[in-house]
Specification:
The complex is a heterodimer.
Chain A (H helix, E strand, L loop, with lengths): L2 E3 L4 E5 L4 E3 L2 E3 L6 E7 L6 E7 L7 E2 L2 E6 L4 E6 L8 E8 L7 E2 L3 E6 L1
Parallel strand pairs in A: 2-12
Antiparallel strand pairs in A: 1-4, 3-9, 5-6, 5-10, 7-8, 8-9, 10-11, 10-12
Chain B lengths: L3 E4 L2 E4 L5 E7 L5 E7 L5 E9 L2 E4 L6 E3 L9 E3 L8 E8 L9 E2 L3 E5 L1
Classes of the chains: A mainly beta, B mainly beta.
Chain lengths: 114, 114
């Protein structure tokens, strides 16, 4: 079964600085999909960014970008110019090519210091 | 606006009682999912359904039951067999079998034991 590991239970960053959240996964598939979700204190799950494994180019969404290393099975999230509103739990997720389900990591709690 | 509605927001269960969590979506998604979230852990899959009148067990289905009689609705029953039901429950939906499409989440239901 596929597993997703987030090795950083907590991270903190100074406002306006950059932070990188780590994620590794285990799969025997060659084609799959990776996601980062944000869960603020409201507990709502919000999609931050997605990456298709067949694409070599790293996905970018405004201040959020990923470093996708397929051979290393690594999918880190970089947040640039951190804002107070970025404070949340961040979950990395893996979805197989069948799209039947999604596997989540345990999450990283990000604190943004003013 | 399309979305997923979970109700109630808070639910309390007495010992030996079954309770049902509601999940309704108007996104015209075929696939629906139930996750359980415990403190310090990621989301764990309870049940999922790809089409009406069909559903599959996830990783932690024991003590739970579901039905999928309508495309829009996927209620979750927490039975008395679930000995540790206190958790935050999230319902999600997505386009069926399209892996790069994200799951959309409701706002969750927090279940506690009286």
């Amino acid at each position: 079964a596929q597993t997703v590991t987030q090795s950083q239970p907590e991270m903190s960053v100074q406002e306006a600085e950059t932070v990188t959240l780590s994620c590794t996964y285990d799969t025997s598939e060659s084609d799959y999909y990776l996601f980062w979700y944000k869960q603020p204190p409201s507990r709502q799950m919000i999609l931050v960014i997605r990456q298709e494994a067949y694409k070599q180019q790293n996905a970018t969404e405004n201040r959020f970008s990923v470093n996708f290393q397929k051979a290393a099975k690594s999918f880190s999230l970089k947040i640039s110019d951190s804002q107070l509103g970025d404070a949340a739990m961040y979950f990395c997720a893996y979805r197989p090519p069948s799209g039947n389900d999604m596997r989540f990591g345990a999450g990283t709690r990000l604190t943004v210091k003013p | 606006d399309g979305g997923i509605t979970q109700s109630p927001k808070y639910l309390f269960r007495k010992e030996g009682q079954n309770v049902t969590l509601s999940c309704e979506q108007n996104l015209n998604h075929d696939a629906m999912y139930w996750y359980r979230q415990d403190p310090g852990q990621g989301l764990r899959l309870i049940y999922y359904s790809q089409i009406v009148n069909d559903f599959q067990k996830g990783d932690i289905a024991e003590g739970y039951s579901v039905s999928r009689e309508k495309k829009e609705s996927f209620p979750l029953t927490v039975t008395s067999a679930q000995k540790n039901p206190t958790a935050f429950y999230l319902c999600a939906s997505s386009i069926r079998r399209v892996g790069n499409q994200p799951q959309h989440f409701g706002d969750g239901t927090r279940l506690s034991i009286l």
